[in-house]
């Protein structure tokens, strides 16, 4: 699952820039992003306005407007070239309050405004504008912040939203514990118990991320949204590449680092995929885009270690994050990393459709088995283990366990095997239900052909 | 502490206050195994350690009976352990291998002397014949000679390229069928990580590292030190992470559009190379013609000194060496 962009810092460099194509060592000595004092007198290399350069991106000093246009260009390109948003879509932007999601909010709002304008001035000839809503997952139940601070933070978020016009954007604030069970009174306690049963610090961190995504899915489904837009940026993705590698998730790694992820009921898109955290921070500074980071949980355990490692790398070479991303691009994405449903691309102008039409029309549902907890596609050994368990499993618990990837098995499931049952009982029902229905259909088929199956021991 | 399944049949005698080995349940535990965190006695540690290596050899069919195997011996702890264990296993499990120690002498006065002494001791201790190949033998130049000719800048380029080939060339000279090196999990994990940082995917298959390498600037920057520190911190936090990195390396799904290394041979020496001349020949050419910068720095238009003054090594070809006749590059 894509990591939230909690790693701050980073530098700007166009991915196509020849410096990054050549690899490390080519970055100018002054750090990218903010211009060093000596170069501050330079004027913008992009426009003729003669304005002072305040940022460096792609090796070029830019004025604030050009820098903004540069980032917006990357955002828009990601949205259009991956067909992320259809006119009929209702997009839910996941807003954490941090700089990346703040920029995502700003940019998608601008795209929406433009679409609204075209619609209004075209007498309904142009395509209608997509709907846009904002979601904030309130994780304060797991923190020790006093209640009034949390309320203030949420008010801040509301005021950020209301400062954007035109367009009515509904804000959905959902406490994380809602994803555990709806309706019962002891949700918060249940959530704390569930998290408390996880021994590993990194496991807890990752589990909460999984819950966060589920929470977004729930908000989207209950409010009729058709897309979830995350502010995950290049820096966050670079961190994820390393942390997934370090957790033995080399097989599943490509699943979380693409532009599009359709594993979920509501597909997830990452338009800031090519923007570095430092660029986004700088943009917020330059344009006084308000952020609210009080409620952000710093990542801990291995994720925290990776974040500080990437920070050091970045200081040593600002284009390192892009290089890491390039490495990840050498890995094969999965079938769910693109929109392939029949008729999906009909909204595109006909000149663009051929670009998407080599997608296998038969791949409308993907065949990979996904981890029950984190959604990682199963590697061969995990599939083998699952097959073996299906044949021998006496208890449901064994089946649930076998539906967890090796990483979740190690870091999320409680260390003591006899606690697994308790853990699964605390999970939201629909998680384990998926396995129940899958195994029910499997066992009914097995029952039908039971008479014809030879025992493995029968060998003539 | 949970007793592993294998030991449940043998209930350890309860003895208040002393920790018993989880494996034999008889002797006192002498250490906590980093890989598994099991508390284990010395004898059992030797047994499981050697057995795991034996399993790796068997499961990956690394050797065939009768093969002549060169053990890359530097005198360090890894190759010393390798020499000892391999000769033990060869004897114990009748691998039928013809083992010998192979050492490389770069010809740096005062540097190799101690380690070569250690290897000579290994020869005696383990009864394995020792062959030393020197840069002088292989290339006609010692490192001392090279430094005299080109100074202290870029000399690391020469040594690195020469060393990588020296083991292979030396083994070929001595008619070996296989080479074994003492690279351990930490080394391999570091390689996987460093390659990710450099823009390369290193995939591990059957214990070999296949490197999908883009030609580009290759510099031994500070990040190697960061990576090593990171791995150490990681290991402290989660010991199995080292092996998990390797597992990731084994499971990477490489896109088919990623360029595969091409294999050809060097026109001059016949060594495996993806270019007309292998890297060593290019460098030697430079040395012999009094043009020591040949093969160093950019080969594109605008070749010249590097602007930032840092020591840089340009790798203009894809793979320059292979071990065991396969595509791949041990890029440690």
From TrEMBL, chain A:
Identification of the protein by name: Cytoplasmic tRNA 2-thiolation protein 2
Isomerase listed as a keyword: no
GO cellular component: cytosol
Family under the similarity heading: Belongs to the CTU2/NCS2 family.
GO biological process, one term: protein urmylation
Location in the cell: Cytoplasm
Alphabetical list of PANTHER family matching this protein: CYTOPLASMIC TRNA 2-THIOLATION PROTEIN 2
Record's keyword terms, sorted: Cytoplasm, tRNA processing
SUPFAM superfamilies in alphabetical order: Adenine nucleotide alpha hydrolases-like (SSF52402)
UniProtKB/TrEMBL annotation, chain B:
An example Gene Ontology molecular-function term: transferase activity
Domain called Cytoplasmic tRNA 2-thiolation protein 1 C-terminal: residue spans: 264-294
BP GO terms, sorted: tRNA wobble position uridine thiolation
GO annotation, cellular component aspect: cytosolic tRNA wobble base thiouridylase complex; mitochondrion
Listed InterPro entries: CTU1-like_ATP-bd, CTU1_C, Rossmann-like_a/b/a_fold, TilS/TtcA_N, tRNA_thiolation_TtcA_Ctu1
Gene3D superfamilies: HUPs
Residues binding ATP: 72-74, 78, 104, 182, 187
Keyword line: ATP-binding, Nucleotide-binding, Transferase
Pfam families: ATP_bind_3, zn-ribbon_14
Region annotated Disordered, chain positions: 299-332
Ranges where the tRNA(Ile)-lysidine/2-thiocytidine synthase N-terminal domain occurs: 69-202
PANTHER family: ATPASES OF THE PP SUPERFAMILY-RELATED, CYTOPLASMIC TRNA 2-THIOLATION PROTEIN 1
Name of the protein in question: Cytoplasmic tRNA adenylyltransferase 1
Native source organism of the sequence: Miscanthus lutarioriparius
Origin organism lineage: Eukaryota, Viridiplantae, Streptophyta, Embryophyta, Tracheophyta
